[in-house]
Amino acid sequence: MGRKIGLDVGDKTIGVAVSDILDITAQGVKTIERVGIKKDTTEVLNLIKEYDCDTVVIGLPLSLDGSDSIQTEKVREFRRRLENKLRSSAMAHVKVDWMDERFTTVIAESVLSQAGMTRQERKKIVDRQAAIVILQSYMDRQHNLQS
User: Fold this and answer.
1) Can you give the CATH number for the domain in which 45 is found?
2) Which sequence ranges are marked TM in the entry (predicted)?
3) Cα 147 vs. chain centroid, distance in angstroms?
4) CA 8 from chain center: how many Å?
5) What CA–CA distance (Å, rounded) separates 7 from 147?
6) CA distance 132 to 99
7) Cα separations (Å) of 88 from 7, 41, 94, 108?
8) Strand, helix or coil for residue 114
9) Whole-angstrom distance, CA of residue 27 vs CA of residue 98
């Protein structure tokens, strides 16, 4: 069983988190500065290989009422491109899944604020923290389904 990688895909950055070997906790890995969907998906693919991940969890930014937004469509397109790249690089076994991320940025901001970080400090790592929340929520849900 491989690790899981969580992604918070935004217009400017992609927050990245990876599970530990036992799939119990999520740790922030990095924030990717977006340069273009081709290079961005290649960088994610390299992280999947580096951390030997068997599952990619992408935060799905739905509107509060559960409907799609403009950002939702952009993230769906990112997933399509990533899945195509996984298939063409003999990594079709890697599962790609969604996790509702409606409140992850709010939760991430709150955690960082409670840690005493300034607004500027929070701004630099909020996407990575949001990826941690997305991945941790996904893993907790999987564990609850199994028990």
Assistant:
1) 3.30.420.140
2) none
3) 24
4) 4
5) 26
6) 12
7) 21, 12, 12, 34
8) helix
9) 18
End-to-end CA distance of the chain: 18
pLDDT value, residue 121: 75
Can you give the residue range of the structural domain that contains 120?
Answer: 3-145
In the numeric block, the tokens 């290989």 are attached to: 49
The number of folded domains in the chain is 1
Percent of the chain scoring above 90 in pLDDT:
63
Strands 13-19 and 26-33: antiparallel
What's the length of the chain? 147
pLDDT grade, residue 67 (50/70/90)?
A: confident
Tokens describing residue 131 = 């990826």
Mean pLDDT of 90-97: 94
Q: Which of 116, 125, 113 is nearest to 28 (CA)?
A: 125
**What residues pair up with 99 in beta bridges, in sequence order?**
59
